Amino acid sequence: MDSISLYNPKILKHYKSNSQRARVLSENWCSSEMYCPSCLNEHIIHFPNNEKVKDFFCMNCRNEFQLKSSSKKFGKRVVDGEFNTLMKFLNKNKAPNFLLMHYSNDDWYIKNLFLVPKFFISPSIIEKRNPLKESARRRGWIGCNIIIEGIPDEGKINIIKNEKVINKKTVNKKWKKMFFLNDKNPYTRGWTTDVLKCIEDLSKREFTLKDIYKFKGYLKELHPKNEHIEAKIRQQLQILRDNNILKFKSRGNYSLKHFD
Ligand SMILES: [Zn+2]
Q: Distance between terminal CA atoms of the chain?
């Protein structure tokens, strides 16, 4: 990655509206500057315009990426495309990786760019929106939001932070750290990422089973059909331990490995 500037006078001249400019400039930047965070291939390739759900892919490892760019910092949620289309992709375990780019349209610099790996996309973080009104051109169309604030920090991998480019190897290491989630189905791994989010929210070096049980209500809301929330929590703690994210200190006492 050589540049974090989207600036391109030809594109700026050709497009009049700032939203079109931003779309083309950010796509253009991704084609020339963005590498594959999974295999560190130098480039990712732009798909033709009509591709649903995905915008870029890696020729080497076949990972797919959807780019979202905004002149505002990403907040609690981000608007995505059609709900059923994304759910269909998700159920086939084919959700794309999301690249979320925050740029400035004063200087056209990328301020922040982070990656949400596909294995962090689960039904818990997809919110169905209300159908469009009668008067709308696409009436009845149902969109969705991705709930960014529901994703644990481990699933938001910084690529550029406050205009600073993060080392590629650090990015790749973070990808690999959580890659064990990839071969699980979206519902199963959703449990793991939801419990991880609760652990992070405690902001404690060490915690107890009791601490995590306090999130029972929150987890029940995300998984309303499950009647055995406590057992499910314990199972996720074991999965996190088996994959080196957690350490079991003593009975009912845990610590997050990256605090060590
Ligand atoms: Zn790749």
A: 31
In order along its 260 residues, the chain shows pLDDT tens digits of 999 999 999 999 999 998 899 999 999 999 999 999 999 999 999 987 666 777 999 999 999 999 999 999 999 999 999 999 999 999 999 999 999 999 998 999 999 999 999 999 999 999 999 998 877 788 889 999 999 999 999 999 999 999 999 999 999 999 999 999 999 999 999 999 999 999 999 999 899 999 999 999 999 999 999 999 999 999 999 999 999 999 999 988 999 887 54
Distance 36 CA to ligand 1 centre (A): 5
Q: Rounded to two decimals, what is the model's pTM?
A: 0.94
CA 260 – CA 255 distance, rounded (Å):
9
The phi, psi pair for 72, rounded to 5°, reads: -110, 150
Ligand 1 center from residue 104 Cα (angstroms): 28
Q: Ligand 1 centroid to 42 CA: how many Å?
A: 9
Asked whether 82 and 144 are in contact (CB, 8 A), the reply is: yes
**Could you say which DSSP state residue 36 is in?**
P
Distance 54 CA to ligand 1 centre (A): 15
CA–centroid distance, 202 to ligand 1, in Å, is 34
Query: 181 alpha carbon to ligand 1 midpoint, in Å?
Result: 17
Q: What domains can be seen in the chain, in order of their start residue?
A: 9-167 (3.40.210.30), 187-259 (1.10.10.10)
